[in-house]
């Protein structure tokens, strides 16, 4: 996610509108996709010719840097796909990135630099601690600087507090939060009668803490017979050898591990499990993210699961985009929230007939668009996107599910779809709206 602390001279455009697929009930199979609505857009929108500057503040160096670098490529790719006539407003988005080194302090410095250069749309995702700092800073900036308001577009930070106790009118989340994913994950685990002893392992920051909290709460409700035989938190992006943790997991007699780890913290964990002879199941949020497919290899077949809002075999237009992305960058696209940010922004700007963040924020509330897997909605109460979730499992690629991330010969095979009404969780947000 990181670029340098200055903006490239050539900005890459991004925008959005609705690409269609399917919504629907619980499904055991892959959902066919409809052609992207972007292709059917009018040749020019009401704001044609207007430029919207955006900055993504995220890590592009360090252990977790490869994740951010890959995601920034996704923004660059979809800049081309959804510019101008590719969105109902007709705007052109210029997107740059700043490397925040996964630091809240660095992120606040980057935010100030972006605002000073006239940027009014900030994107971030990796690290809920960073997201919480940015959300608070942006809310305070907007209160103190009427006429220079900023919108925060969150593509990956999943701490539920961001849309509950610490919700902000100016923050919009496009990923499913930890509680939403755990609601679906625990429903799936509840049906697996061979799971009896679970170990919870996570990164020692807000996300890891929340994963553990909701795992224990939901399993107690759905499978009270399951034993939680251990729980550990480790430093974020600092652990290079997970062998001691694997030893503890084995000693505890766990048959299953639940983890919210991502980036190197997941790929190195899986690597240690393979080398340490742990043959139990892993239930993850981010098995498909950069580096983890390679770490999994063939060893994770049939025992590594992922809960997420998209996967590598969505079908239709998404398959075409992913194939083109891989050809262009020799990399895998997996952060579908990138697409949804520009689908909803394009629709909101067309509705507001403006790129002014005050008017666009109002238009984003409650907005619905047809996305790559059906209709999604930004819930007005807390600005949390309501969307389907998928349980997938790591298996050999081929047949109906041919896409192979990192050329492993393996893929994430869809097992079950949890539609919006199942994956949704209530909110306690008491949002303070501008007068």
Count of domain modules: 2
Helix proportion of residues, in percent? 25-40%
What is the subunit arrangement here?
single chain
CATH topology of the largest domain: Rossmann fold
Q: Kindly report the spatial arrangement of strands forming the biggest sheet.
A: 7-6-8-9-10-14-15
- Largest β-sheet summary: 7 strands, mixed
Number of helices: 12
Which band does the percent of strand residues land in?
15-25%
Stretches with pLDDT under 50, minimum 5 residues: 1-42
Dominant shape: globular
CATH architecture of the largest domain: 3-Layer(aba) Sandwich
Looking at CATH, the homologous superfamily of the largest domain is: Response regulator
How would you characterize the overall build of this protein?
There is one protein chain. By secondary structure, the protein is α/β, with parallel strands linked by helices. The chain folds into 2 domains: 37-176 and 314-386, 3-Layer(aba) Sandwich (Rossmann fold); 179-308, Rossmann fold (3-Layer(aba) Sandwich), CATH 3.40.50. It contains 12 helices and 15 strands. It has helices spanning 65-81, 104-116, 128-144, 178-190, 206-222, 243-251, 264-276, 292-296, 316-329, 337-352, 357-364, 420-423, and strands at 51-58, 92-99, 121-124, 151-154, 171-173, 197-203, 227-234, 256-259, 281-284, 304-308, 368-371, 374-378, 385-386, 389-396, 410-418. The strands form 3 sheets. It has a 7-stranded mixed β-sheet, sandwiched between helices. Strands 2-1-3-4-5 form a 5-stranded parallel β-sheet, with helices on both faces.
């Amino acid at each position: 996610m990181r670029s340098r602390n200055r903006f490239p001279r050539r900005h890459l455009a991004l925008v959005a509108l609705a690409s269609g697929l399917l919504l629907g009930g619980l499904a055991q199979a892959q959902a066919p996709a409809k052609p992207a609505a972007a292709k059917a857009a009018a040749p020019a929108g009401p704001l044609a010719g207007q430029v919207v500057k955006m900055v993504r503040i995220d890590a592009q160096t360090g252990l977790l840097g490869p994740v951010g670098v890959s995601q920034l490529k996704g923004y660059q790719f979809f800049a081309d796909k959804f510019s101008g006539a590719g969105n109902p407003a007709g705007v052109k988005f210029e997107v740059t990135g700043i490397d925040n080194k996964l630091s809240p302090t660095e992120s606040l410095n980057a935010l100030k630099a972006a605002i000073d250069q006239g940027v009014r749309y900030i994107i971030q995702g990796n690290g809920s601690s960073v997201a919480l700092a940015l959300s608070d800073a942006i809310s305070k900036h907007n209160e103190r600087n009427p006429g220079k308001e900023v919108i925060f577009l969150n593509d990956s930070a999943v701490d539920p507090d961001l849309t509950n106790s610490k919700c902000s009118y100016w923050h919009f989340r496009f990923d499913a939060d930890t509680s939403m994913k755990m609601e679906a994950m625990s429903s799936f685990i509840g049906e697996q009668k061979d799971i009896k002893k679970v170990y919870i392992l996570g990164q020692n920051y807000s996300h890891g803490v929340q994963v553990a909290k909701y795992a224990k709460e939901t399993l107690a409700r759905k499978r009270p017979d399951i034993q939680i035989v251990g729980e550990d938190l480790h430093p974020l992006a600092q652990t290079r050898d997970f062998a001691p943790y694997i030893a503890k997991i084995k000693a505890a007699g766990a048959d299953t591990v639940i983890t919210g780890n991502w980036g190197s913290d997941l790929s190195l964990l899986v690597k240690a499990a393979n080398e340490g002879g742990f043959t139990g199941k892993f239930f993850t949020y981010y098995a498909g993210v950069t580096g983890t497919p390679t770490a999994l290899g063939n060893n994770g077949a049939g025992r590594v699961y992922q809960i997420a809002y998209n996967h590598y075999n969505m079908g239709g237009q998404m398959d075409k985009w992913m194939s083109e992305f891989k050809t262009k960058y020799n990399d895998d696209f997996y952060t579908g929230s990138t697409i949804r940010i520009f689908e909803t922004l394009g629709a909101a700007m067309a509705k507001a007939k403006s790129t002014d963040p005050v008017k666009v924020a109002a238009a984003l509330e409650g907005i619905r668009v047809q996305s790559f897997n059906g209709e999604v909605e930004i819930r007005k109460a807390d600005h949390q996107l309501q969307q389907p979730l998928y349980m997938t499992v790591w298996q050999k690629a081929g047949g109906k599910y041919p896409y192979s991330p990192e050329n492993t010969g393996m893929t994430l095979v869809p097992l079950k779809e949890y539609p919006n009404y199942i994956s949704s969780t209530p909110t306690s947000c008491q949002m303070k709206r501008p007068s």
